[in-house]
């Protein structure tokens, strides 16, 4: 049995270690080619919190939440199971539609236009999964961290690199506005742009044809 943190500092330290552990889980899972599902999302959350807050690790919330500095109101906790089951059905359809994506992105004899088109589809799926988690807000805490790692799982599964979407200081407002734009107008462009920027930052200076990355001058 895990002993509860004795201070806020210890809690934050355990959560930080949990994010690192969850990032490693994501990379390993992406390479394993095991099927991605909503259960995988719960496993990511479990990795983050199993030492910091075991009572909530990998478990859907049983209470209602308000999000600080956001107009988004998460659904009632009693609806979470049904909503996540709906996301599961949609996720499997989207994954099936991307069945050949990794081969295209990593392929040596694939046109650049085809690569770009496939990368775009992968990024849109990552954005959709990211938003799906933040919209339902299924967990008591750590929904944003779980959503960002889940998006990385999609990117890494199909041959791209996991990114870091910056959510500190001025970037926090831009990130929240990107999610709000989906809430209000079903417009994924701002969130997709954030993911593209994260990828560009990771690939900057890397001459890798299959990703369409440009070498910096």
UniProtKB/TrEMBL annotation:
List each copy of the Fido domain by range: 36-197
By its UniProt entry, which SUPFAM superfamilies does this protein fall under? Fic-like
Q: Which Pfam families match?
A: Fic
User: What InterPro entries does the record point to?
Assistant: Fido (IPR003812), Fido-like_dom_sf (IPR036597), Fido_containing (IPR040198)
In the record, what terms sit under GO molecular function?
ATP binding
Which residues are annotated as active site?
A: 137
Q: Which residues bind ATP?
A: 141-148
Does the keyword field hold Nucleotide-binding? Answer: yes
Q: Which UniProt keywords apply?
A: ATP-binding, Nucleotide-binding
Q: Keyword check for Isomerase, yes or no.
A: no
This protein is called Fido domain-containing protein
Protein's organism = Candidatus Lloydbacteria bacterium RIFCSPHIGHO2_01_FULL_49_22
Instruction: Show the taxonomic lineage.
Output: Bacteria, Candidatus Lloydiibacteriota
């Amino acid at each position: 049995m895990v002993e509860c943190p004795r201070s806020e500092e210890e809690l934050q330290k355990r959560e930080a270690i949990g994010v690192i552990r969850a990032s490693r889980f994501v990379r390993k899972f992406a390479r394993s080619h095991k099927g991605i599902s909503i259960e995988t999302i719960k496993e990511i959350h479990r990795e983050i919190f199993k030492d910091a807050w075991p009572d909530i690790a990998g478990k859907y919330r049983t209470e209602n939440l308000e999000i600080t500095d956001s107009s988004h109101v998460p659904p009632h906790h009693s609806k979470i199971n049904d909503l996540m089951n709906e996301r599961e059905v949609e996720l499997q359809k989207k994954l099936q539609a991307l069945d050949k994506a990794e081969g295209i992105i990593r392929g040596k004899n694939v046109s650049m236009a085809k690569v770009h088109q496939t990368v775009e589809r992968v990024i849109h799926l990552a954005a959709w999964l990211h938003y799906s988690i933040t919209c339902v807000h299924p967990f008591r805490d750590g929904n944003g961290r779980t959503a960002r790692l889940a998006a990385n799982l999609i990117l890494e599964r199909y041959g791209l690199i996991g990114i870091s979407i910056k959510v500190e200081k001025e970037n926090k407002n831009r990130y929240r506005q990107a999610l709000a734009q989906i809430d209000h107008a079903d417009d994924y462009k701002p969130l997709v742009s954030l993911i593209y920027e994260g990828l560009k930052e990771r690939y900057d200076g890397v001459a890798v044809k299959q990703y369409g990355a440009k070498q910096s001058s």
